[in-house]
Amino acid sequence: MAKESQPVKLGIDIFSLRSQKWTPIQYLDYCAAQKVQVVHFSEVRFLGSLDPSNLETVRHHAAKLGLQLEIGMKSICPTSKMFEASQGTAEAQLTRMIDSAKLIGSPIVRCVLGSADDRKPGPIEKHIHDMVQVLHNVRSRAMDAGIKIAVENHAGDMQAFELKGLIEEAGPEFVGVCLDSGNPLWTMEDPHVLLDVLHPYVLTSHVRDSAVWNVPQGAAVTWVQMGRGNVGIDSYVRKYIELCPGKALSMESILLGPRVIPFRDKSFWDQYRNMPAWEFERYRELADSGKPYREEPWETANQQERERLALEESLDFTKKLIGV
């Protein structure tokens, strides 16, 4: 099993394999075959259930394979459009996950606020406040269990300084970051800015490459295999290893069509009134350096095979980059 003193632990976020429809045991066997150290079950659906007997089975199989486990869930913000109220209160859902993390041997529970939809009409600060209250309400349960809450910068919900503020207000003694290198492109951020701001709070990570370029409305962004983008992913990974030693570097491979960030529309800026000009300029420089990215459309390929090939390409690139 990988030791905490190692400079980096390579992992796989099972969301990368979301179309495979495997059992948790099959996911673990695949990850072991890819020679990673960490398996990140970012959503409950990939675990199958939170039934204690299932969690014990997964834990024992992971131990047999020498794999470390991390588990997660979706939104814990009760006012987010992504929050699933049918599953109980945010506190009840998060408490179940804390108990499950302790049972399965995960040091963290990954969660999110929401998505870009929560910035409109906004303000995002309202949702941040509501999520902080939830975290305050479960603090003692998390601290007693020795479990930390890893909040991801997710799908265009928060910029780096906003997430930093959430963590500081909630309590950095038990709340940190699941740092995602692809999502800042949806909030007009350079991933390197994200890393510079949030590295002291990192508990785990998702990593993937991105391509960004100018379009008439503003910029277009698409997530790509590691090494194919123009955001300096090589130096990002090297800096992550230096600044976050011992933390998991987990591949989250996602291939989507371009997403347009319409920053030339004045009304779009209602969502980003507090963004510093220097941060936006960094983002513009990335877009200026890019060119339209074209690849075989995801929808016309064999999705399950395409998923595996894309993930394995990114793993191979990253292993060579970090000398594994």
Structure, described:
Mean pLDDT is 95; it is low at 1-5. The chain has one domain: Divalent-metal-dependent TIM barrel enzymes (TIM Barrel, Alpha-Beta Barrel), CATH 3.20.20. Strands 1-2-3-4-5-6-7-10 form an eight-stranded parallel β-barrel, surrounded by seven helices. A three-stranded antiparallel sheet has the order 8-9-11. The protein has helices at residues 24-33, 44-47, 52-65, 90-104, 124-145, 160-170, 191-198, 233-243, 277-289, 303-322; strands spanning 9-13, 38-41, 68-75, 108-112, 148-152, 175-180, 202-207, 209-215, 218-224, 248-251, 259-261. It starts with 8 loop residues before the first strand and ends with a helix. Strand 1, helix 1 and strand 2 (38-41) form a beta-alpha-beta unit. Helix 1 packs parallel to helix 3 and helix 6 packs parallel to helix 7. It is of the alpha/beta class and 324 residues long.
